[in-house]
Design a protein that fits this description.
- Two copies of one chain form a homodimer.
- Chain A has eleven helices and nine strands.
- By secondary structure, chain A is an alpha/beta fold.
- The first copy, chain A, has two domains: 174 residues, NAD(P)-binding Rossmann-like Domain (Rossmann fold); 114 residues, 6-phosphogluconate dehydrogenase C-terminal fold.
- In chain A, the strands form two sheets. Chain A has a six-stranded parallel β-sheet, sandwiched between helices.
- In chain A, strand 5, helix 5 and strand 6 form a beta-alpha-beta unit.
- Chains A and B meet through helix 7, helix 8, helix 9, helix 10 and helix 11 of A and helix 7, helix 8, helix 9, helix 10 and helix 11 of B.
């Protein structure tokens, strides 16, 4: 389905995600004009200088004025404040969306505000990213071939849901629709838990200062690659950890159980069980890779 | 220091590590002839067909006959058996080495056997690898710019230590010498612990089957990259976990402490402490990257 041309779109937060969405939609030719706004003036200027957005707005109100679609691409913890800043200036019947990594709490905060303003809110989450941030890190191909989850509830407007889905498809994503709770639990497992583990691992190894020299000096590519995600933005991840608390605590506890099982097998010197534990893990991961390869 | 030409070297176990060492040393021109042996006949044939070794020996005894240096590149758990298979056929005064990822247990098992046979044993561990295995995965650049730890004890022969160090330098490695205990603790932190975590994470997420579909389908590059090392050889990692039990259990417990701290901060909703935890981790890892970049 080809996407109808949208006249004006506003992106609030022109960092890696917001900036890449703007670049992808301009490249796809589905939006005539994209106005950007950012609470960081330097980043906003950079976004305009790098032509990530067509114009840097002078205020959030200016950015969303007469926009058909407004996308909030800010950390999850700033979502409600960003919605409050733009909703009074959005035209009735227009569409508000977001790119937050947690959905239930964003919907709970933003949907009632949007309804009061006569605006349709549709929550979305592109499952893509790098450990870099800011407008300079944005690139049009970020969402290419990646999934974007668009969530819905009883209050979601069908036409708005279709429009937001079509925009993400135009940006190159495969769109999957599901309810917010399912989204939050799946993301806790495949993204939020790995980030918590990477952060804890780096701190744990850094604290191991028994020797004078820095033992991280001995790490080969394995450790560097394994901990790549521990270089992600601390503000973003603080917000995600707070916003997806329930599902995340559940996943951490499940992981702790598996690690405890492994520890017990090592303690007992049970080679048979250790082999089986590692083999099962390798098989699951290899199956994931084969599936990905087939899909390409 | 240029390495003197060695007449004959034998590699026992022509997989990723043994095969890559053979390729690197032939390319450096420091060994005249490399004979290979492997308990897996198919892999041995492959190593010869791919010219990873000059000749596939007909037996372990044949491989090491009149060799100046013999390198055992087999899983840590097979090290003692491999040493017993070759030592009776090695000439007095020649050098035996290994590539195992754990050093204390290998030295304890192999050094007394070598001494009885009049052979000098020097334990070594190249800190390089990929998640692939077998002769087909071998390549000459595997050790380029990577560290190789050569360990020593009171019984280590100085000339043999020099020879083994020179070979690894010829293969492209930066050689660092240290005692076995220090090696085992550093490796537990930067390599063995991350592998245990990756294996436990994949099993934990795979077991989360609350939904009909496979939630791993939703994983973006992050999860795939983060769990790359969970595709490593289960036999190799069973052996490492058993052989470095003490240091590894200590590291797992230290990691569990950090994860518990993080879990408590999430539970309490303490944004300040969460931010500080993530920031500290990001700083440590970013410092590691900057250091690597400067060294290049």
């Amino acid at each position: 389905m080809a996407t109808e041309l949208i006249n004006k779109m506003a992106v609030i937060g022109v960092g890696l995600i917001g900036g890449s969405l703007a670049l992808a939609l301009k490249r796809a030719g589905v939006v005539r004009h994209i106005s950007g706004w950012d609470t960081d003036p330097e980043n906003l200027q950079l976004a305009e200088a790098l032509q990530v957005v067509d114009t840097a707005a002078t205020s959030a109100a200016d950015a969303v004025c007469s926009a058909d679609v407004v996308v909030l691409a800010v950390p999850v913890g700033s979502m409600a404040a960003a919605a409050q800043a733009v909703l009074p200036y959005m035209r009735s019947g227009s569409v508000l969306s977001d790119t937050g990594s947690v959905k239930q709490c964003v919907v709970e905060q933003v949907e009632p505000l949007a309804r009061q303003a006569g605006v349709h809110f549709v929550a979305a989450h592109p499952i893509s990213g790098t450990e870099h941030s800011g407008a300079a890190a944005a690139f049009a191909e970020l969402f290419s071939g990646k999934r974007c989850i668009v969530t819905y509830g009883a209050a979601t407007d069908t036409a708005a849901l279709e429009l937001v889905s079509a925009l993400w498809r135009a940006a190159g994503s495969e769109v999957v629709c599901m309810d917010t709770l399912k989204h939050d639990r799946i993301l806790a497992a495949i993204s939020h838990l790995p980030h918590m583990i990477a952060y804890a691992l780096v701190n744990s190894v850094s604290a191991y200062d028994q020797y004078d020299e820095n033992i991280l000096d001995y790490s080969a590519g394995g450790f560097r690659d394994f901990t790549r995600i521990a270089s992600s933005d601390p503000v973003m991840w603080r917000d995600i950890a707070l916003a997806n608390k329930g599902a995340l605590l559940e996943m951490i506890e499940q992981f702790e159980g598996f690690l405890a099982e492994l520890k017990q097998d090592i303690h007992r010197g049970d080679g048979g069980r250790l082999y089986e534990f590692f083999r099962r893990s390798k098989n699951s991961r290899d199956a994931l890779l084969h599936k990905e390869a087939k899909e390409r």
